[in-house]
User: What shape does this take?
Amino acid sequence: MKNIDSITHLRGESIYLDDIPLLQGTLFAAAFPSPMAHGVIKQLDLSEAERMPGVVRIFTHKDIPGINQIGGIVPDEPLLAEGHVDFCGMPVALVVAESRDAARAAVKKIKIDIDPRPVVTDPREAQANDQLIVPPRTFRLGDTSAAWQQCTHIFQGRADTNGQEHLYIETQGAYAIPQENNALKIYSSTQGPTAVQRAVSKVTGLPMHQLDIDTIRLGGGFGGKEDQANTWAALCALAAYLLKRPVKYSLHRMEDMAMTGKRHPYSSDFKIGLDNDLKIIAYEATFYQNAGAAADLSPAVLERTLFHCTNSYFIPHVRATAYSCRTHLPPNTAFRGFGGPQGMFVIEAAIAKAAEALGIDASVIQQKNLTKTGDEFPYGQKAESEAHACWENAEQLYALASIRDEQSAYNKANKLLKKGLAVMPVCFGISFTKTLMNQARALVHVYTDGSVAVSTGAVEMGQGVNTKMLQVAAQVFSIPPHRVKIQSTSTYRIANTSPSAASATADLNGKAVSMACTEIVQRLKAVAAEEWQVQPGAVELKEECVYINGTKTDWDWNRLVMTAYVKRVSLSEHAHYATPEINFDASKEKGHPFAYHVYGTAIVETTVDCLRGTYTTDAVKVVHDFGSSMNPAIDRGQIEGGIVQGIGWMTMEEVIYDKEGRLRSNALSTYKVPDIYSVPNEIAIQFLRPTVNDNLAIFRSKAVGEPPLMYGIGVYFALRNAIKAFNPGAEIPFDAPMTPEKLLMALYTKGNPAKHEQTVNHLATHP
Ligand code: MTE
Ligand code: HPA
Ligand code: MOS
Assistant: This one.
């Protein structure tokens, strides 16, 4: 089935925040951002700004009737700066004016006097200064300190990954409209309507039942609107509540880039030990997460880095420690993969380091160490592994050996063009790592004309979740899709939602929809059973018709629904789903946090132009474990988009802050994102044949949203291999992204192949 939004998208008729018709009297807001990353506010002079034409009011923290606090996990984030500023772009004041231009012009007239304080942008420096968001976490399996003795080869090194701008096409924004008796209706471009509702409640002091947060769809979220939509909604709500007029704020792209957080940059140390047979015996990693100036979701992101620090591999002895480091950057936040990609990059770097030193292909080490069913992850859960199935399917289907042969022949024949290959296995845990968040609700109404309306906590952000929800209802009722409508996501219809995140939106909300629809079907069957004087088990609903004992009757869906109504049988249901079995004990760092894992393997081929330092991704060939995909077209789209977004993170997107904490890559002229030319020449996607076991997702499908991003990591390592084909002695730091500039330097660095200064115990080279 096609994405239900495809026609309105194509015709430009889909409604995003900025398309909502404005009410008369609507005012426009703009935030005044701190020009400095750290300092004490000595004076804030609003007088000139207040005299600007069209300005209605300028709000500061003093105007907040509730509390000046929007921190979700840790209460460390004021909505408006109070006394000091902690990052460049931190909202200090909010101008509200008759037009957007008037609001922005007035922002420029605000004067601030800040007594500067030292700015820290490096997470290792923050950690050395004891500036941690939360205490460090350590995951352990076996005993690494004893295990090094069993290792023939030990390597250590450092691996860094940079941030990533979400660059959702629709920028952040909100539109708050006062209702009677102080209630507020807030349209918000958010992945988490309940998160917005809580933040607005804290700031305004209004109870949550006064706040209807309504979300039609997002022009992309990618994690950037899981928590950080709260700010803009809370600012609009504050102004609308105090002025009793509708207030809208839709951010300019440069405001959005400068004021919101991004994917967390990480700097990490690793140590890996292998035995004679290239089995990884021990692995230690230390992660320094650049959290920015406030916690936001950083502690949860940090945790997922640890969960995925061994990617698809079974390693018997692991010790991984992670620090969430407070710096003076905008608070970094969720981004597709949620810390997982950062953890996986480091283990892949460790394997690459070992392979390069031993003069073998990394894939030899990778394949030997893939998890098998029953293997234990460092956090205690046992794998139900498809890692080998994906790898071996990919190897055969895409003829890995002949790709390798063709590449080496090509590299022999070409002096200035070199090809590089990498295989990237991925294993990603599905469920919010915070167990309590794994719950969802659905509200289903069947109207007397037989049409159906479904509300859930799921937010459509381009990932196709609304289409999947519609498919669930249509399938359980056995009616055609056009008879079902998915309503906007509203906190008045569905309460206490988890954000649409963790790739689990369809799983959780789909289960709730299925439960609600099934309950209504039971009631309808009872109505038919009474009419035909049979047991309800003899009744079947099929393609809008009622069947009794397998025989079609002259009752259709509409007649059944109407009869139920006449008999005063409820045609509505609200259902609640909570993922069973999952648990995690953070005091022991052990448990069964994930309902299941998603597996996949990508074979990545690249070509480097060794004169220019430019490169292309020739192919990304994937075998991916979709379970029984509910919608192969949508799921393919998720894989393709994820791969390209991953390639962007790994090869070109470079978030640059200067030493003063100012964002230098603050527009699309200085921040390069993938375009049509960066897309791999070929993306091949093979569905792994689904296994029979119930994986706890809806209709035995598997979550698909985040895992494919991590195939992009393979491109980084394929590029390294191409560089090595040109300059075998090149010493290339593990420092993503591999931009053309860095790649060009690496091609022509004079490396010393004999020197492996970080190799501590390199006893023997593998035959
Ligand atoms: N796809 C599109 N088109 N737009 C998005 O914003 N977000 C990604 C992924 N795919 C996103 C997307 C992220 S970060 C997540 S967690 C999942 O979709 C969320 O949706 P799901 O839980 O329905 O997979
Ligand atoms: N993934 C994504 N988003 C989240 C998670 C998670 O595990 N936990 C809280 N928000
Ligand atoms: Mo996705 S990073 O869990 O919104």
Remarks:
- Residues 226, 297, 300, 304, 334, 338, 432-434, 437, 501-502 surround hypoxanthine (ligand 2) (CB under 6 Å).
- The first helix runs from residue 6 to 10.
- The two ends are 53 Å apart (CA to CA).
- Residues 753-767 have pLDDT under 50 and may be disordered.
